[in-house]
Records
---
Amino acid sequence: VSTQSTGGNNTINTTNFPMAFRACGLAPTEEELEKIVAEVNEGGKVSFARFKTAVENNKKLGQNIEELALSAFQVFDRDDNGTVQAQELKHILTALGDKLTEEEADDFIHECNPSHDNAIMYKKFVDKIK
């Protein structure tokens, strides 16, 4: 995606914004993208400076999400050893908050790569999904 409009004024058309934003390694939801575009939209275009600021702000948010994910796992780390049990995690995923289906929870746990004793080293998992 070029940051040059046909006039060469270093802008991105708002219709190209989502693709350019995702090309920077960010994965916001459609709702989040709409909100971001509304904040930076300058008459159907986004200046490169505003685009860059939006990307930097959202990368910082991604770092905060990593910290939140670790904190969430730590709540269920009863032995304070960096692990949670797969069965306990499955129960949490299917019973609390935005509940996953059994199949979704199993897929998630499989991605966490539990050890032979069904312990999940959550820091490695969080690092993997960064």
---
Amino acid sequence: MSNKKQGEIDKTLKKVKEGLNEFTDIYKKLCANPTSQQKDKLDCDLKREIKKLQRFREQIKNWLPNEREKDKLNEAKRNIETQMEIYKNYEKASKTKAYSKEKLSQFATPDAKSTTCIWVRKNIEELKAQIDKLESDNLKRKKD
């Protein structure tokens, strides 16, 4: 492996590390509930950063078959793919409409669902008991 190529790999790995840190910082700011203007700017910054990381990932994938230092390259590639997954989940969550079934189901926790089911069952049982009582009262009146 030539020194020139090794220097290029080291330079790219350094840029990847910086890019990962930048992505993480921007993502943390986005999670801190910014104003809508800040959110738009941070969205653009996050997208720009993930695009840079994707370009580095492609470059790393091209180097992988020929290089001896596969561990460092694979680790950088995995880190980028992790950030890509985070971005994909963020993008999906941000595009979910406020009152869609998916968004509303996020708020309906299993505990809330089970509590609601218990409440409904209890009320159904009470209503059945009331119906039985009314029917028996009706039968008594008809006999009298």
---
Amino acid sequence: SSGINAEYGGVGITSNQRSRVDELLALAEKGESSSVDLLVKDIYGGSYEAMGLPGDLVASSFGKAARSRIAGPAREQVHDADIAKSLLHLISNGIGQIAYLH
């Protein structure tokens, strides 16, 4: 648990100018990660039925940011809470994947 706090806290504090993990978690509760994460529906226009993937499934954490979709005026629509939530999902999904594989 302390490793998770360190990872989330270290990256989150750096990117969001928050000083404590509990502040980041409270901020993440208010966020909408789909403003920075690339979803299946962003790629296929909806669910990808052939693979059984729902449209709201994350295809790439921070994918919209990486594709420069949130540059310029669109960046104003992305809030620190959105970034905090996406980061929390990224770390949580990674932990879940590792747990599943082991």
---
Amino acid sequence: MALGNLAAEPENHDSMVELGGIDALILLLRQGCCVEQELDSGRYAAFALSNLAANANHRKRLVDEGVVEPLVALACSDSPDVQRQALAALRGICIAPEHRPTVVKLGILDPLVLMARSDNMDILREVAAALNCLSSTEENKAE
């Protein structure tokens, strides 16, 4: 949670990235995806990544360092809080049009379809925002 709180402040983003924060967050994501007892770790890592993804200077690095696949896996969790945080991070990455096709190719559509069935209004807002973002790229319209 501490990394998420640090990432909430844009002035901390450069330091976090330069000091290896993305690698640490990916490790937490992978633990959160695979070990039920570590689900909170994954949620907090996704929260931090959603804050970093809000910074246009770091989106490419997030994608290049491999955050998309573990975020997609985390979005398939049964926990609405975990789903929402993972989707918020993915949506943040998708703000940049150049990353939208990559995120689709790496599997975001499956969890979006699953989450679209939710009764949770926060989840439905995230799904709608992500689909809106993804659908505005010609390459994704064929998917």
